[in-house]
Specification:
By secondary structure, the protein is of the alpha+beta class. The chain has four domains: 100 residues, Immunoglobulin-like, CATH 2.60.40.10; 172 residues, Galactose-binding domain-like (Jelly Rolls, Sandwich), CATH 2.60.120; 102 residues, Jelly Rolls (Sandwich); 249 residues, Glycosyltransferase (Alpha/alpha barrel). It is built from twelve helices and 35 strands. The strands form eight sheets. Strands 19, 20, 24, 25, 26, 27, 30, 31, 32 and 33 form a ten-stranded mixed sheet that branches. It has a six-stranded antiparallel sheet with strand order 13-12-15-10-18-21. A hairpin with a 1-residue loop joins β34 and β35.
Length: 703
């Protein structure tokens, strides 16, 4: 019998993450028993587990998927914990010792935000740390905007990429905590290079080349180093006027437009720093690390009909690269990134205004170049400026958030397996701190509709709880400034439009996280967000159903719009019908969350609201005999999925007929497609679902 997968707040040995209280989870393997009968959690300040500050005793009430323990946690403290489990086969085992460590919590900062004069190169802030005795413990608490990389004695202290990540910078900033004990055992030089990141890059599909960032934050840094020495004494070193700044050889970086590095530039003298005021709250990290997760070697060096040299990685991905170069001083090397070839040539017209390039100017020595503050969505790389380009000199680096793989499915059909792999790569390519819509063009934004539609699939494939928790926290901070409205994009970057299905992510994503983890804490944390979204719609809806009359994306990108020449993106299903159904669904999920949280009055209120909305839907969109007056695949699927009418026979037969009219092919879009096969199966049309899954043809209705 073994106890494995021991986690706190769904993380293994979390260091410096935001937590109001710890939620413990574990798994039992190699056991004769079939279930856990009792368990005991112990928490101590000592790795030997002596003098426990928590000891639940062996009790039956501990849930292995999520056990909340109320603990008055102190700042900057490492807590050790074990769990002992008994099974119905009279087995007993205790886990290895695990730990979690708090950040600064409410503790004041003994550091200033520092910045520097405007530079034509990215700054590197530095401080020499001199010590007279051995350091036995060192923690670095740090945030740098737009993005930062920190090194000690020339070595990066972390393999994280693009910290402190992408969030609603107007309302909160997150800092990271690093254990740098081994790096600073005898002191050394700490250096922090800053780039533009999301906080300082142009960002948003409405942006144009040369535009400033919406947040337009200055390049600024705050850092606090806590040292404990061999004799038990302590020392705090924070950013202040004693720090210095140099100029790096990176002269530009942007999320959309890439990075420029000029190694032919001369070294610069150190300069003084400036103190700056920053009023945005600074909190412990929510974001899980973004790291290099896979390394891809090119499968081919293509010489195109247009005379281009193009590396083909054989797989579309999100990430950066490494390239070994040795060219004469002053040589300009230019890399451009794209997803497809067109007529055998490099193509990237689909990137719109995103330049997606890397420019390097050589100093004449051999270098391995790698971006610091940008990323690309690509399979193909056009490279100019290198003589005798060699395929072995290039390596693609897939970069995305670190999420544990928990689910797999493989079938006997290789094309179905390829479809599943496409979904997996879709996750990898779009889970770079924010669940994005695409990784390549001038968008890469956290569209709420995309996020909620994919959330269940994502939770099947990966342990997504902490990833979505951060996204939902951002969502709530936006709502608090918008009277409950959920922007279509999170973080919004100033784009505050909202719509049904998209905004309903505020209720659907927390519910899916609960279903996949059994952890009620996400519903507790997000309950106010769920309520405020439903209440926002309720105010808009009024007494005349105004919500359904607003603009909504509806069944976005469906194939059944009879007026497709006017707007190819809107589907044929009435947008108001969809809006009301999702309004009712969000109210229902809010009621269910309230019931689980033992908030009886609110559970009754939102359950009654949901049923009242359903009554309005039946009155407006159904005939007296139960016929759905919106005769599309998606409309019928929704009617059956959400059980809108007592007798579903008529709608079921309408759906069967509709599928036959299209020869078993789908015409659904954003709303209908995710539920199509599963709902057909529920309604006894399994053969149609299988035909859809295995279909390789395309059908479009001609009106």
């Amino acid at each position: 019998m073994k106890i494995v997968q021991c986690k706190v707040n769904h993380l293994v040995n979390p260091l410096g993450y935001q937590m109001n209280y710890p939620v413990f989870s574990w798994q039992v393997t190699e056991t004769k028993g079939k279930r856990q009968t009792r368990a005991c959690i112990r928490v101590s300040l000592q790795e030997t587990m002596e003098d426990c500050c928590v000891d639940t005793g062996m009790i039956a009430g501990l849930n292995h998927v999520a056990s909340e323990i109320r603990l008055d946690m102190k700042p900057r403290v490492r807590y050790y914990w074990t769990v002992t489990v008994q099974t119905d086969a009279s087995e007993e085992e205790t886990s290895d010792v695990n730990w979690f460590e708090t950040g600064k919590k409410e503790e004041p900062w003994y550091a200033d935000w520092i910045t520097c004069e405007a530079m034509d190169r990215h700054p590197v802030f530095e401080k020499q740390i001199d010590v007279s005795q051995k350091v036995v413990s060192a923690r670095l608490y740090i945030c740098g905007l737009g993005a930062y990389e920190v090194s000690i004695n020339g070595k990066k202290v972390s393999d994280e990429f693009l910290a402190p990540y992408c969030n609603n910078y107007e309302n909160w900033l997150q800092y990271q905590t690093y254990d740098v004990t081994n790096d600073l055992e005898w002191g050394g030089l700490i250096q922090v290079m800053l780039g533009n990141g999301w906080a300082r890059s142009r960002f948003g599909y409405w942006s144009k080349a040369g535009d400033k960032s919406y947040y337009n934050k200055p390049m600024e840094l705050i850092a606090e180093l806590h040292l404990r020495f061999q004799d038990g004494s302590n020392r705090i070193i924070g950013t202040d006027k004693s720090w210095k700044v140099r100029r790096s050889t990176i002269i530009f970086s942007g999320i959309y437009d890439g990075e420029h590095r000029d190694d032919s530039l001369c070294e610069t003298e150190v300069e003084t720093v400036q103190i700056i005021e920053e009023e945005t709250p600074l909190v412990e990290r929510f974001s899980v690390p973004v790291r290099i997760q896979e390394r891809l070697k090119p499968v081919e060096l293509i010489h195109t009909p247009a005379g281009e040299q193009v590396m083909d990685l054989g797989q579309n991905m999100t990430g950066i690269f490494r390239l070994r170069v040795k060219e004469p001083a002053g040589t300009r090397i230019h890399l451009q990134f794209g997803e497809i070839l067109q007529n055998g040539n490099f193509y990237r017209g689909n990137l719109r205004t995103a330049l997606a390039e890397y420019i390097y100017v050589s100093n004449g020595t051999e270098q391995v170049i790698e971006p610091h503050f940008t990323f690309f969505g690509y399979r193909y790389v056009k490279i100019e400026g290198i003589t005798n380009l060699c395929i072995d000199d290039f390596e693609g680096l897939a970069v995305y958030s670190s999420l544990e793989e928990i689910g797999q499915i493989r079938t006997g059909n290789e094309k179905v397996n390829r479809l599943i792999q496409n979904a997996e790569w879709g996750l990898r390519s779009n889970f770079l701190d924010v669940p994005t819509d695409c990784p390549q063009r001038d968008e890469r934004m956290g569209w709420t509709g995309d996020a909620q539609v994919f959330s269940a699939t994502a939770c099947f494939l990966r342990g997504c709880y902490p990833f979505y928790r951060k996204y939902l926290h951002d969502m709530e901070t936006e709502q608090k400034c918008l009277d409950g409205k959920v922007p279509n994009i999170i973080p919004s970057f100033g784009y505050h439009d909202t719509a049904s299905v998209w905004g309903d992510a505020a209720c659907i994503i927390p519910w899916n996280l609960y279903l996949f983890t059994g952890d009620l804490s996400i519903l507790r944390e997000q309950f106010d967000s769920m309520k405020s979204w439903v209440n926002y719609i309720r105010r808009i809806d009024g007494t005349d159903h105004s919500w359904r009359k607003r603009f909504h994306f509806g069944d976005w990108l469906a194939l059944d719009n009879p007026f497709s020449w006017e707007n190819v993106s809107l589907g044929g299903t009435d947008e108001g019908y969809i809006a009301d159904i999702y309004y009712a669904y969000s109210a229902e999920l809010t009621a269910k969350a309230a019931q689980l949280l033992k908030r009886k009055k609110e559970a009754e209120e939102y359950a009654a609201l949901s049923e009242d909305i359903r009554g309005g839907i039946r009155e407006e969109f159904f005939s007296p005999n139960g016929r759905c007056c919106v005769n599309t695949q998606t409309a019928l699927l929704l009617a059956l999925r959400f059980r809108l009418i007592p007798d579903e026979t008529v709608c079921r037969e309408m759906l069967r007929k509709k599928m036959k009219e299209t020869r078993g092919k789908l015409q659904t879009g954003f709303v209908g497609t995710p539920i199509l096969c599963s709902q057909l199966t529920v309604e006894g049309m399994e053969s149609m679902a299988w035909d859809l899954l295995l279909n390789e043809e395309y059908f479009h209705m001609v009106f």
